[in-house]
């Protein structure tokens, strides 16, 4: 198996910190999801591994950069969920998820769907006059319904 190295340049140290996380928590989350080495040096990130894995990890970092550059705060959820979607070949869906803003609060916080299931739920709320949301506690059903009501 042939190894390859992908290189990603960050704009500045703040951007590198946002993508890699406090004490490299996001970097560790990404490494757990791809079998490749990720080494941060200065304002760049080197991703070394099998061509397919390195390309997938690079795609994830690029999507996280896109999300961060929109003003969003990254968490391990976005890194792990994004890695799962990239591995499943659903990069376009991830990009769409990261680009859709539902509402901007009075304090400037952007409210977004965090999963594809939440995005589908929001699409059904927009399409139908009455929508019943059923699911496990803590998945955002009530919060997103209130956000949609406020936005309306």
Descriptive key words:
alpha+beta, three-stranded antiparallel β-sheet, 53% helix
- As a percent range, the share of helical residues equals 40-55%
Secondary-structure element order, as H and E?
Answer: EHHEEHHHEEHH
* Global geometry: elongated
State which percent range the strand residues make up: 15-25%
Order of strands in the sheet with the most strands? 1-3-2
Describe the sheet with the most strands: 3 strands, antiparallel
In total, the number of strands is 5
Instruction: Give the end-to-end Cα distance, rounded to a whole number of Å.
Output: 54 Å
Structural Rg:
17 Å
Helix-strand category: alpha+beta
Q: Count every helix, treating DSSP H or I runs of 4 or more residues as helices.
A: 7
What's the overall average pLDDT, rounded? 89
Low-confidence stretches: none
Explain how this protein is built.
It is elongated, with a radius of gyration of 17 Å. A hairpin with a 2-residue loop joins strand 2 (36-41) and strand 3. With 152 residues, it is of the alpha+beta class. The chain has helices at 13-20, 25-33, 51-69, 76-87, 91-99, 116-127, 141-151; strands at residues 3-9, 36-41, 44-50, 103-104, 110-111. Helix 3 crosses helix 4, helix 3 (51-69) packs parallel to helix 5 and helix 6 crosses helix 7 (141-151). The protein contains seven helices and five strands. The mean pLDDT is 89. The strands form two sheets. The protein has a three-stranded antiparallel beta sheet, covered by helices on one side. It has a two-stranded antiparallel ribbon with strand order 4-5.
């Amino acid at each position: 198996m042939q190894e390859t190295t992908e290189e990603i340049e960050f704009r500045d140290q703040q951007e590198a910190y946002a993508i890699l996380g406090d004490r490299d928590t996001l970097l560790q989350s990404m490494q757990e999801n791809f079998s490749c080495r990720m080494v941060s040096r200065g304002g760049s990130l080197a991703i070394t591994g099998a061509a397919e894995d390195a390309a997938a990890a690079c795609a994830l970092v690029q999507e996280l950069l896109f999300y961060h550059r929109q003003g969003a705060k990254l968490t391990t959820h976005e890194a792990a969920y994004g890695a799962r979607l990239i591995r499943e070949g659903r990069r376009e869906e991830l990009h769409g998820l990261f680009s859709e803003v539902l509402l901007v609060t009075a304090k400037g916080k952007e409210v977004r769907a965090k999963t594809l299931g939440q995005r589908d739920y929001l699409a059904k709320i927009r399409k139908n006059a009455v929508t019943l949301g059923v699911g496990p506690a803590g998945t955002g059903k009530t919060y997103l319904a209130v956000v949609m009501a406020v936005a309306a």
